[in-house]
Design goal:
Layout: H1 36-41, H2 44-64, H3 78-84, H4 87-106, H5 112-142, E1 144-145, H6 153-158, E2 163-164, H7 170-185, H8 189-193, H9 201-238, H10 242-262
Antiparallel strand pairs: 1-2
Amino acid sequence: MPSRMTRHRKPKMKTRRANDEVSPPNNDETTCSFDDMTLGILRPEKTVFFLFFIVFIGSIVYELNVAPDSFFSNPQNLFNQVFVKWGWGWTLCFLTPYMVLSGLLTCDKQWYLVLKDGLRLAIATFFWYITVNLFLAIEQATGACDAEGFATKKSCVHAESNWKGFDISGHTFILMHSMLTILEELRSMNAICKYKYSTDRNKKWLSKILPPLIYIFAILLLLLCCLWVWMLLCTAVYFHTFLEKIIAAVIAIVIWLLTYQFWYKKTFSPGSPVRTVE
C-alpha cells in the first residue's frame, strides 16, 4: 500500500486590508515625569516647614559661631552677588514663561485666565518690592554710621565705613518668597500631566508644542529651587542675626498664607494655579 504523505499546513497569515481599522496609539495623555509622589513631596504646605527649619537651625549655628569659613561665607562670592542678589529676577525669568505657557494650555480659550495668572505674578512682585524696601527703611531708621557726619547708609558706605542698624535679612525673604511662589505655581503640573491631546485642528499644535516646553521650564524651576535651598542655608549659617532672619522668614510665610492659602481661594481673586484640564 502506498504510504500516506502527511501534509504540513502552513499557518494562515493574517493580512490587513486597506479598509481595516487600525487601533490608534495610546496618546490620550501626555508623558509626564512629574508623578503624584513627586508633586506631593513638593507641596508648599510641607516644604514651608523644611525651609523654616533650615533658617532656624542655620541661625543657631551662626549664633554659636561654629561654621568654618568657606567660599560661601564671603558675601562677595559669585552665587551671592549674581544669583541671590538678583533672586527675584531669576525667579521671574523662569516662572513667567512657565506660567504663560501652562496658562495657554489650560485656559481652554478663556484667555482672561492667562491674565489672572499674570496678576498673581504681579502681586508676588509687588510684595517683593514693598517688603524689601520696608527692610531698607527699617535699617535706615534704626542705624548709625561708625564714622561721624554721615546720616544715611548710602553716604556711610560710600565713605567706606560701616552702617549698623536692624538689618532684616532681605536674602532670606527673597529666597523663601521665591520658592513658595514657584512651588505653588508648579501645582498646575498635576493637571498638565493628565492633559489629553486635542483632535481639534485649532488646538492640535498647542497640545504638541506646549507640554514639552512647559516640562523644560518646570525642571529649570526645580533646579533653581535646589540652588535657592542651598543659598538659604548659607545665608542662615553665615549672615545676619538670629532675629533678623527669623522675622524675614515669618514675613515670607505670612505673605504666602494670605495670598495662596487664603485670598486666591476666594471668588474675587486671581484664582488658584490649579485648573481642570479637558
